Amino acid sequence: MTHNETSEDEERARRDLLHEAKVVSALGDHPHLPMIFGVVTKASPLCLVTQFHGVQQESVTLHQAADNNAVTKANCISIFKKICSVLDHVHSKGYLHNDIRGNNVVLERPSASGEFSPVLIDFEKSLKFSSVTLYRRNGTVMKCKRKSYLAPEVVSERLYSVASDIFSLGRMLKAISSLLGFYERVRELVKMSTRDKPSETLAFMFSLVRLLMLN
């Protein structure tokens, strides 16, 4: 029984890995998406082979950088503008990310004196718009350790949409801005993105983040 369970787990991990590779490949080139070179499925550990994105040979997530005050407020707002841009690209390709949170954004810095730049990762839970209805009908429950990032309609009905991605983006903005001490500056933006019926477009998020950068 243990052997069978292990085999099932490995097969599930293999399917998830291939799914993520397929999604990232379908999204194409973008400066804030991972660059994939291949997939290891015939030997352990199973993994995606991607370009390394990090700082001084270390992987750094947005949450880690904010928690350690390693990123400035101004740079953080710039980072969110770029996250809006890449998420808009993901949606334009017909996909939802479905797991947007601070640990699924890694940072890189081209030079020691340069600003951090984000890379959106972890597309294991990503779905095409056309797959959402089928996903709900099959009753698959999306697992997430941080349910606070999930929109209410996702928790209650498994109703995934562009709006639920925006909700998660707003929750992430709230968490990161709170760590860095400028939540009051983005409070209204967070409220708009996490209300019961958020906008179905990232345009307002993108515009407001740009305004924040000018202030």
Provide the fold topology:
Layout: H1 2-27, E1 36-40, E2 47-50, E3 60-61, H2 62-67, H3 73-92, E4 95-96, E5 105-108, E6 117-120, E7 127-128, H4 132-137, H5 152-157, H6 162-180, H7 183-193, H8 203-214
Helix pairs in contact: 3-6, 3-8, 6-7, 7-8
Question: Would you report the number of β strands?
Answer: 7
Let me know the average pLDDT.
Answer: 80
Write the element-wise H/E pattern from the N-terminal end onward.
HEEEHHEEEEHHHHH
Strand content: 5-15%
Gap from first CA to last CA: 61 Å
> Biggest β-sheet, characterized?
3 strands, antiparallel
Low-confidence stretches: 139-145
Number of helices: 8
Give Rg in angstroms.
Answer: 18 Å
Question: What is the structural class?
Answer: mainly alpha
Helix content: 40-55%
Organism: Pocillopora meandrina
Pfam families: Pkinase (PF00069)
Domain Protein kinase: 1-215
InterPro entries: Kinase-like_dom_sf, Prot_kinase_dom, Tyr_kinase_AS
